[in-house]
Structures are given as structure tokens and as C-alpha cells.
Amino acid sequence: MITIIEYKNQKIGVFGLGKAGEATVASLLAGNAQVFAWDDKYSGQDEKSLNPESRILNPAKWPWNELKALILSPGIPLTHPKPHEVVTMAKRNNCPIIGDIELLYRACPNARYIGITGTNGKSTTTTLIGHILKMAGIKTEIGGNLGTPALSLNPLAADGTYVLELSSYQLDLVKTTRFNVAVLLNITPDHLDRHGDMEGYIATKMHIFERQQKDDTAAIAVDDEYTKEIVLGTRYSVLGEAKYIPVSARQKLEAGIYVENGILYDTSSTEYRVPSTEYDLTPIPTLTGRHNWQNAAAAWAVARACGVAPEVIYNAMRSFPGLRHRLQLVATIRGVRFINDSKATNADATANALAPYDNIYWIAGGKPKAGGIVSLAEYFPKIVHAFLIGEAEDEFARTLEGKVPYTRCGTLDVAVQQAAAMAFSSSSGERQREPGIHSKASANGEMDPRTILRIAEDDGSVVLLSPACASFDQFKNFEERGDRFCELVEGLSHAP
User: Fold this and answer.
1) What is the CATH code of the structural domain delimited by 11-98?
2) What is the overall mean pLDDT for the chain?
3) For residue 197, what pLDDT is reported?
4) Element housing 493 (H / E)
């Protein structure tokens, strides 16, 4: 845990008591601050005392003229389209508004800071970078939006590196934080209800490059229209003096890092040039698909900026375990793969899940986002059948009508059962028609385990949970949704 001594014996407000907010309160109390905290979940309740130095108290009763700062949860609107009333109160009283990332930076100013942002791919890239640096022997802490609150990490000095996943919400709240290496993966429309419009969303993402200096590195993927405009300077000129490294999974780069047909090339410097025969990403099961190639290219750029040798990076990538809820292979049952991609909460993320597979039995739905799944039409021929759940059922059914067969399932439990039954039936029929399979059995009539695996791979049927929706209609978060999917699949594996 980080101890915040900056506000010793001073009064501080903390609004929002999720994981990050609770960690913030603990860090401030450890540094002997006087904390006034609140979360809307306490509405209608009387004042509470956690201890003599911490009070759960409605912000209307806070001593605003004495507060030295308001530490705001990233989930609370700061600006567009309408700030939260606590923000208005803070501004009215000239109370500085910051977040936990800013507190971490002030508490541990000598460490190296790596920040990763983008609409999609942040968590995988952040975890991959942390994995590489740890394998390289670098003292590393990984957290932020990824799940571990920034102030729950261990304190680091000049020999340590923080690898932080940063949402647009968190970037709204940094004031002095300087990222030695800043990564922008992609920008697609998201959270527009929070930021007002695309201009507001992009402007917030650009905070990650502010205050970078000539010794710093800015790695930007150039695979979407918005990031291309940023790089060309037609939208924002915020890169300053930082060394710029472009990365791509869709085009060759004369001076950058790119992946073509699964082979990673580093042309960012003649010193870094990579023999194509040695850095093949295709055998790495946790880095499949073009979107993961982009993640890998970005992670490579960061690791090189940190001085890690190419061979060390590649070996670390080969041992990367991947993340739960991001194209996670849960099980292969009767030749059918069950993939948990619950983290795909928008259509762009789901496109990355649909692209690598064929013969897909797709479980989709939840709390819909703007645009729905219209943009996924190019992937519809890959989908054998769709199983729709949640509030998005009707909207998704209208989009799929006449293009993809679908079943309205209502809940995830029903969808998994029906998708599995249909996939098993189809898969069994295909295997019966497949010539030569029985010739692969051993002399005693038992199937060689490697043959079973090969049949599973060759069959190609996939039950894919990639909802293209938020989870809040039926679950607390995407993790709970993904965990439930895994439980249901586990039940299938034990079924007779």
C-alpha cells in the first residue's frame, strides 16, 4: 500500500468508495490525513465514523473551506455533459480535484511510469508489458484501471516501474503526472455520454502525453482513423519532445513496429531490427488475432524503450498466460471450444473476437451501447447461430433478422445450454463424416491425446461469449458475467 503523507494533519474529501476509493481512504489515513468520505450508496443514512480521523458524511456537510483537495472516483463525471454536484461544490470553494493516479505519482516521484490507454486492448497490453518487464528482472507493479487500485500497489523508488492501465476517466484527473512511456492503442466511439462527443473523448485520452519530455517515449498504434489523425497532427499536437514510435497490425512501417501475417518486425531503429524468422507470434495462443498483434507490437515498443533485449521480450511473450475474460479458452468439450470474452463490452471489441474463428455459436447481449452490432455485419457469415440475452435482445434480433439465425434466450444460463447443445450436435455430425479419424486411434483402440486435440482444433466449432454489451442489466460487472459463463461450461464438462 502507498502511504500518502502529503496531506498529514490536513482535511481531505474522498468521493466514491469503490475499490479505488477505499484504497485512497486507507492511504490517506496511513499518512495521518483527516478524511471526509462519501458514496451515493450511503444516501439516506446517518453520519458514520470509520475511526477518529475518517467520517462518512454527505458532502453537503463537508468543511469545504478547509479541504485541501477532493479525491474523486474516476466514475464521477468531471465535465461533460454535466459535472456531478460534488465537482461543482469543489470548484465553488477552489478545492483542487485529483485522482488516485495523481496521488501515486506525487508519493513515488522517482519511479518510472508507463501508462496505457485506448478504447480496447488496454488490459491485455498492460498485463503483457508487466509480464515482460518482470521476466526481464525489472521491479514492476501493475495496476490502475486493470483492477488493482493504484494506491494498493507497493511503493517503488528509482529502480522500479509502474505499469498502469488508464481509462479516460482517470486521465481526466491527472494534473502533474508525467508518463515516461505513454501508449495509445486505439480510439473508437465510447463513453460519449460522459465526454459529450468524440472531441471531448479524444481530448481526454490525449492527457496521457502531456508533460512528456525528450527522454520519454510515445507509442501510438496507427490502425484507426482517429489515431492516424493524431499522429499526422491534424487533430492534436501534444506529443511534444517525446520520441514517437508508431505501431501497427495492419500496415508495414518504415520506422516503427508492426506485425504482418503474425510476424513481428521492428524497424524503429537499425539497432533494433528483428529477423522475421525468429519472432513469429502465431504459435502464441494468448496472442491470437490481429488485435492481439497490435497489443504485442505496443508492448514490444514499451519494452524496447525500457532497454529490454529483443530475445528477452520474445521469450516473455511466449510464456504470457493471458487474461481472464479476454478470449479465454475455458474448455474444449467434445471437439467444441468454449471461449470467454466477457470483457468485450462494445462492438469493436467483439469484432476482435469474431475475426479469428469460424463456425461460431455466438452468445451476445446485455445492456446495449450506442450503435449496437450493425458494424459487425462483415463477420455474420462466420456465425452459425446467435443466442441473445439481456436488454439488447430485441435490438440485436432486428439487426440479425434474415442474416444470422438466432434464438432469444433471455439469460446466460439458457444461452450456454442451447449453444452447447447445438454446437455438440453439429460437431458430432461433422466428425462422423470426417474421413480417417478412426485410423488415428492407437493399437488398443484408444484415441491418442494429441489426436483428440487435433480433432478439436480441426473441427473449428466455437461457443463464444462476446456480448458487445455492458453487463449491468444482469450482472455487477463483466467479471461476474465471465465467471458465470465459466461455471456453466464447467458444468457441461461434468455432464454425462
Assistant:
1) 3.40.50.720
2) 87
3) 65
4) helix 478-494
